[in-house]
Backbone:
């Protein structure tokens, strides 16, 4: 029995190594003065210097962050209103219908979302660029926020609102003093998920980005297609650190709520 | 009064659904009937049922199947062993972290690892096998895809295993079932929903990932997703691209129907 336990630990360790090796491989060679992703010659920070002098890339990073923050913010507002609307709907089939429509964009492959949005923007006449990327990020973030907020609303129960109404609260009071404070953890989780989805997205952005405007993922793709350049390694090291900070932040937010909301639907 | 406030919330949300969920689907369907010259025709559907496209669809399915199968084989034991560890939620978080790293960076890492002078070939050299072409092969495509999808498969299976009441396992053992029988007759049936949703999360994207086929498989593997991207952004034949997209949506709906209806299934 003891030996079996050790074997299982070994399996987990191997999986962890496989999952993390590529990431650390990238980070390790970002310090290589040799300029290639093999034959580590010597330690250098040149690639980081080059990265920070590359004003084009810095603008792209800024674009990516602006898109992520704006789309996460707007989609959070839309998502909250959507979640409350779904929650108010009493008929079961209407509720299920809305929920299935909500889930369409979550389960659709990115290529389809990207292609159909490309058609949509061309059809409506929106120029491809900042606006189209922002709109599509908002669009695919809304259902995620809805799914994060809805369980909190269902947890709340209708009697709380009835009580507030009976005690003379206006509609606005009910929203701002009862509903929103109760669902705040869900709102934070939704905003956070939207942020990471937006930062991570490649395929949808790739379709609707046009010529002038680029986000980080699209830029990495076009750089990687040209071959290996250690700038990308340096960039990925910084991104990894940033992601870790986000994860730690997310972990503490969910920890404070005593149960992990984002990590699967745990009841 | 309640209806009025409900409608107030409903309006922006329904507008969003109409604009970004329903309209795009209708547009895709509409464009699938438009040929490359902008006329209404069924030529795209005719083209889809020629051997070229059918073969591509089949091979796309085959790759997606292989990717899903390998991911499941790796992920199930991992999820199972994770639930047995002491700080399981911390370990789970550590498994999830790599999935939050940009997918393209992970693919890019494998360009280095599988390259001619990369880590993998250096290892092969050490074991005396010698340098091999690893990048731009089926193996590298499937390996990298499985690598990327593992966390997404582990998550739902972990949740299912975590919810499993351990007394069932104890009861099964007390009643004389072997560890193997307990696993196949008790644990697997009770966690099959997690497996189903895991397969769903992996299979559908595996049909449609195009950046991996471009970067890792060097255009050798053409999936349905690659074909859609090709038609939309390279050859500018939106009609044909939409037709393939329509079929992808149909396939997706079928898969969802078979793996998704948990409540009715039980």
Residues:
């Amino acid at each position: 029995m003891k030996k079996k336990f050790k074997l299982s630990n070994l399996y987990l360790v191997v999986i962890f190594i496989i999952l993390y090796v590529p990431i650390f491989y990238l980070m390790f060679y970002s310090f290589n003065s040799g300029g290639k992703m093999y034959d580590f010659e010597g330690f250098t920070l040149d690639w980081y210097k080059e990265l920070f002098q590359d004003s084009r890339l810095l603008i792209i990073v800024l674009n990516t962050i602006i898109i992520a923050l704006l789309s996460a913010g707007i989609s959070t507002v839309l998502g909250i209103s959507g979640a409350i609307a779904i929650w108010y709907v009493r008929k079961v089939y209407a509720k299920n219908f809305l929920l299935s429509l909500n889930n369409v964009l979550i389960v659709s492959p990115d290529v389809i979302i990207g292609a159909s949005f490309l058609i949509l923007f061309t059809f409506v006449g929106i120029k491809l660029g900042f606006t189209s990327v922002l709109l599509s990020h908002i669009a695919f973030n809304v259902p995620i926020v809805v799914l994060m907020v809805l369980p909190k609303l269902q947890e709340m129960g209708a009697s709380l609102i009835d009580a507030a109404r009976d005690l003379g609260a206006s509609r606005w009071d009910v929203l701002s003093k009862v509903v929103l404070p109760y669902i705040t953890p869900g709102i934070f989780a939704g905003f956070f998920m939207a942020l990471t989805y937006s930062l991570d997205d490649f395929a949808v952005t790739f379709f609707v980005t046009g010529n002038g405007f680029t986000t980080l993922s699209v830029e990495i793709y076009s750089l990687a297609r040209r071959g290996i350049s250690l700038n990308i390694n340096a960039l990925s090291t910084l991104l990894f650190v940033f992601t870790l900070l986000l994860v730690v932040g997310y972990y503490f937010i969910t920890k404070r709520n005593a149960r992990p909301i984002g990590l699967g639907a745990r009841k | 009064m309640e209806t009025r406030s409900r409608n107030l919330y409903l309006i922006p949300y329904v507008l969003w659904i109409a604009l970004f969920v329903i309209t795009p689907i209708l547009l895709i369907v509409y464009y699938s009937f438009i040929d490359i010259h902008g006329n209404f025709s069924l030529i795209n559907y005719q083209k889809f049922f020629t051997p070229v496209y059918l073969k591509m669809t089949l091979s796309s399915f085959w790759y997606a199947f292989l990717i899903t199968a390998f991911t499941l084989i790796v992920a199930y034991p991992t999820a199972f062993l994770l639930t047995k560890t002491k700080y399981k939620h911390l370990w789970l978080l550590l498994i999830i972290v790599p999935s939050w790293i940009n997918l393209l960076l992970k693919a890019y890492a494998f360009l280095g690892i599988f390259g001619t002078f990369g880590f993998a070939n250096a290892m092969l050299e050490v074991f005396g096998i010698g340098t091999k072409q690893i990048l731009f092969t089926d193996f590298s495509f499937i390996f990298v895809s499985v690598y990327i999808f593992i966390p997404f498969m582990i998550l739902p299976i972990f949740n299912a295993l975590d919810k499993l009441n351990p007394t069932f396992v104890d009861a099964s053992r007390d009643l004389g079932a072997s560890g193997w029988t307990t696993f196949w007759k008790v644990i697997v049936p009770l966690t099959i929903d997690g497996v189903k949703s895991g397969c769903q999360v992996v299979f559908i994207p595996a049909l449609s990932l195009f950046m991996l086929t471009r970067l890792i498989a060097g255009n050798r593997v053409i999936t349905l997703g690659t074909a859609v991207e090709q038609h939309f952004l390279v050859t500018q034949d939106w009609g044909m691209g939409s037709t393939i997209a329509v079929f992808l949506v149909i396939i997706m709906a079928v898969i969802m129907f078979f793996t998704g209806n948990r409540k009715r299934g039980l």
User: Anything to note?
Assistant: The CA atoms of residues 31 and 43 of chain A lie 5 Å apart.
